[in-house]
Write a structure and sequence with these properties.
This protein is mainly β. The protein has no helices and 11 strands. It has one domain: Prolyl oligopeptidase, N-terminal domain (Methylamine Dehydrogenase, Chain H, 7 Propeller). Strands 4-5-6-7 form a 4-stranded antiparallel beta sheet, with no helix packed on it.
């Protein structure tokens, strides 16, 4: 089971547990030091869990991450709103056995409907709704 917690040393980060004290460990300190990565919006797909997190204000904003439950396997999928700005991926929703959809903001087109297969190349806008007349919300 994955969850977020603050141990007083690493900030709010990604943790896992097997239901025992000994088996409850930090998965990855995504935001270095005591900064908070604030992982949220968890979605299980295949052998990975996808979520929204930030490395802090010096690298990326809130972006799409995935983990296989190990530190080495916890990686940024794609920096959608490049640089320190945030795309704020929300409403991660399983689409089929290999893809999921979500809402995110690339900083140019506004909040749009995205799909992802868990790779940077496979993470892309499905439909660009004109920011002056349209938007996306409530993915089910």
């Amino acid at each position: 089971m994955l969850f977020r917690a603050n141990d007083g040393t690493n900030g709010i980060e990604l943790w896992k547990t097997d239901g025992t004290s000994e088996g409850t460990t930090l998965v990855a300190n995504i935001a270095a030091g005591t900064a908070n990565s604030n992982p949220s919006g968890f979605l299980i797909l295949g052998n990975n869990v996808y979520f929204n997190a930030t490395t802090g204000i010096t690298v990326t904003g809130s972006e799409l991450y995935k983990t296989d439950g190990t530190a080495a396997g916890t990686v940024l999928v794609k920096d959608i709103n490049t640089g320190t700005a945030s795309s704020n991926p929300q409403n991660l929703t399983k689409f089929n056995d290999s893809k999921f959809v979500f809402a995110a903001n690339d900083g140019t087109t506004g909040v749009e409907l995205y799909e992802s297969d868990g790779t940077a190349t496979g993470t892309k806008i499905i439909k660009d709704y004109p920011s002056t007349t349209g938007s996306i919300s409530d993915i089910q």
